[in-house]
Design brief:
This protein has 175 residues and is of the alpha+beta class. 30% of the residues lie in helices and 22% in strands. It is built from 5 helices and 6 strands. A hairpin with a 5-residue loop joins strand 3 and strand 4 (92-100). The structure holds adenosine-5'-triphosphate and magnesium ion. Adenosine-5'-triphosphate binds at residues 13-14, 32, 34-40, 64, 66-68, 138. Required for chromosome condensation and partitioning.
């Protein structure tokens, strides 16, 4: 399948300075003190893969992903996240998403301008993407714990990738 090797951030949320996260084989979690940016890293990964909802990135507008400034550092005018890795066929790939304050965001795939749709298709074909059940955020864990059994079952089926099977079975039974 598709493999990710490196996430590059600049001006994204608390990662104001250029930062690289190496995504080695088997990486399943990130640990660190409260507020150090663990959730922001996961959000950067979702964002570069096409997340379109500001709320699921804990913001009210998309500009909220741009470094907002601190007592000692001014805000930034733009944020950029790059994801480097290999496609399922072994070809190298890099997806970059950049947002300018007040001007929206744009994507590049392998250095060429791309549409949000191209990015969505690239990851959907590899069964991953901004809404992949493999990315478990903090809020999602509380939701799983608080869920009723039927809801929890639906979440687990989604994670197991068998939702499509049920849909096809219902289709078949309806005939
Ligand atoms: P916890 O262990 O509590 O879950 P965490 O490691 O997940 O913490 P994050 O939620 O990723 O931490 O990071 C929170 C920090 O990011 C806060 O200090 C917050 O102020 C900062 N932050 C979030 N958005 C921005 C932004 N747009 N500009 C600057 N800082 C931001
Ligand atoms: Mg967190």
């Amino acid at each position: 399948g598709m493999r990710f090797e490196r996430l590059r951030l600049q001006g994204f949320k608390s990662f104001v300075d250029p930062t690289e996260l190496l995504i080695g084989p088997g990486l399943t979690g990130i640990v660190g003190p409260n507020g150090c940016g663990k959730s922001n890293l996961l959000e950067a990964l979702r964002w570069v893969m096409g997340e379109g909802s500001a709320r699921s990135l804990r913001g009210t507008g998309m500009d909220d992903v741009i470094f907002a400034g601190t007592a000692t550092r001014p805000q930034r005018g733009a944020a950029e996240v790059g994801l480097h890795g290999w496609r399922a066929d072994g070809e190298e790939m890099e997806v970059v998403r950049r947002i300018e304050r007040g001007a929206g965001s744009a994507y590049r795939i392998d250095g060429r301008d791309a549409r949000a749709r191209d990015v969505a298709l690239l990851f959907a074909d590899a069964s991953t993407g901004a809404h992949s059940p493999a990315l478990v955020s903090q809020g999602r864990i509380s939701a799983i714990i608080a869920a009723r059994p039927a809801e929890r079952r639906a979440m687990l089926e989604e994670a197991a990738g068998i939702v499509g099977l049920h849909v096809r079975r219902r289709d078949a039974e309806a005939r």
